From TrEMBL, chain A:
Protein name (record): DUF1446 domain-containing protein
Highest rank taxon of the organism: Bacteria
PANTHER family associated with the record: DUF1446-DOMAIN-CONTAINING PROTEIN (PTHR47472:SF1), PROPIONYL-COA CARBOXYLASE (PTHR47472)
Residues annotated as domain Acyclic terpene utilisation N-terminal: 3-449
InterPro entries: AtuA_N (IPR010839)
From TrEMBL, chain B:
The name this protein goes by in its record: AtuA-like ferredoxin-fold domain-containing protein
Domain AtuA-like ferredoxin-fold: 6-104
Domain of life: Bacteria
InterPro entries tied to this protein: AtuA-like_ferredoxin_dom
The organism of origin for this protein: Devosia ginsengisoli
PANTHER family membership: PTHR47708, SI:CH73-132F6.5
Pfam family, one: AtuA_ferredoxin
Amino acid sequence: MYRIGSGAGFSGDRIDAAQSVVAAIAAAGQGGAVIFETLGERTLALGQIAKRLDASRGYEPLLEDILAPILSQAVAAGIVIVGNFGAANPPAAARAIQALADRLGLGTLRIAVVGGDDLVGKIDLTRTERWDGDGRLPGLQGDVIAINVYMGASAIAEAIAAGAQIVVTGRVADPALALGPLVAHFGWAWDDLDRMAAGTLVGHLLECGAQVSGGFFADPGVKDVPDTANIGFPIAEVEADGSFVLTKAAGTGGLVDLRTVKEQLLYEIHDPAAYLTPDVTLDLTEVELEELGRDRVRVSGARGHPAPDKLKATVSYYGDWLGEAEISYAGPNALARARLAVTTIKARLERRGLNLAHRADIVGTVSAFDSDAGDLLAESEPPLAGDYRVRFAFGSASQADVNSAVQEVNALYCCGPAGGGGVRQSVRPRVRTLSHLVARDVVAARFHFAGEPE
Amino acid sequence: MNARTVKLHDIAHGRSGDKGNRLNVNIIAYRPEHWPVLLAEVTEARVAALFAHRGATRVTRYELPRLGALNFVIDDALEGGVNSSLALDTHGKCLSYLVLGMDVRVPVEPGDGHEAEPVLQTAR
C-alpha cells in the first residue's frame, strides 16, 4: 500500500494544510508522497510576467511558506514532494527549495526539475486547432505571454525512480502529480490502461485539496461539515491493483463520505466516460464507492482507454484592462437608487464615447446568476428597501478608457443618486487565455536534477 | 401518483466547475429513490432554459446511475470564461445553486407526512 496526500489545491490555498497530511503519512512509517497543485489557467502566465521582470521569480509565490513547516519531516520520512509550483520557472523554484533546505540544515537534496511544457517559439498557433470548449470565443490580438502544454506523468515517474526527493514541475495535467509517484512505486506499465486510469483517478480526487474532504461542501443544516476552520486535506491509501481508500488525518476537521467524494469525482468532468489526460482516457462510469467507516471511502472501478492523440495547451495573451468599482445604497427605496446609479453610468459611458465592455451587478439581488445584459435583474422583484451594493466592471484594450469609466463611478459621490457610499475601485491588467490542441510530437517531457546539467 | 413540489436542493446536491467558457454542473441525489426524479425532472431542456439568458448554446446531460448523479456540460455559459468574463463569479462556482433552485415534483409515499398536501389554505 502506498500513501499519497494533498498539500494544496490551488495557489493561495491554506499554507498549513500539508502539516497534518505529512505527519499522518510519516506516522504510518512506509514513505509515500505529498502533492501540491498550485496552477490555474492564468497562474502560469502571471508567473511568466513575474519572470520577465525578475529572472529569479516566476514560481509559486508562497513556495517557502508551504514547504518550510514540512520539508524536514518529509525528507526524514521518505515522503516524496511533487508540485507544479515551479510554474513559469521550475529551476528557480528548485534553487529556492535548496536554499530552504540549507537553512533547515538538511544538506543537498535530490530535487528534480521537469521541463518541456513551455512551447513558446516551438509551435505555430495559426496552424493549431482551438479546443472546442473555447470555440465561440473571439480570437485574441496582442502579444503571447506563454504557451504551456499539459504534460503527463512520465518525467515525474522517471525522476522519482532516479531518486528524486522533490519533483518540481511547471504545467502538467493535475492528476499526473499523483500518477507519477504511483507508477514509480508500483512499477505499473504505461500501457496498463486500467492502472493508469486508477492512478489518474487518485490524482483527480486529490488535486483540489480539501474539496474531497469537506471543503467547498458545507451547506449548513443540509450538508454539515465539522470544524471547517481546521479541515484536514485528503490522503489516498492506494493498493497495487489501483483501488484506494480516501481518508484524512485523525484530529482534523472536515469529512470524507460518499457525498464529498461524488461531488469531487464529477468536478470539472465533461463526458464521464472520457476524461482526457495526456496519459490515459479515464472512464468513470463504472466507479464504485463504498463507505468503510468514518472518513474512509473505498474507490474502485476506474477504467482506462487510450490517451488522446493531441494535447491541450493554454495560450496566454497580454490582453486588456479590467476596471471594477462599487458603491452602496441602503434603506428606503435603495433598489431604485441603485438602478438609477446603473443607468446613470451607462449614459455617462455613452456620452463620453468610451470604448469598452461593461456590466453592472446589484449585489443582494441576482448578481451571481445574472448575465452581462442584466436579464435576471430586469425580471426579478427584489424588495425595494434593502442594502444593495452596485458593482460595475469594465473591460477594454484601452487603459485610459477603463480609468475614465472607473472615475465616473467615483463621481457618483457628488453626481449620483442619494445616499451612495463606500466607493472602492481598482484597475488592473488582465491576462487572457485560449486553449489549443497540439500534436504530441512537439512535446518533449524531460527532467534533470537541480545542480546538474540539463 | 400523488406528488408534491420541492426545490431540487431538498433532494440533491452538486458542484460546478469550469474549463474555458464551458461549465459543468453535477447534480447528485441524496437518496436512491430520488434518482428517477432527477432523470425525469432535471432535463437538458430545463437546464438550458436556466442558462438561456447567459447565452448557453448547448447542454449535454450525462447519466451516472451507479452514483445517482447527473453531469451537465453547458457550453458558452460563462460570459467568456474566467480570464475574460466581467462577472463577479468568473469561474461560475455559484452556478450549481442556480440549478439546485429549480422546482421538481417528487412522489409522495404513504406515511412521509406530505400526502395531505393542502389544496386550499384554511382560514386562520
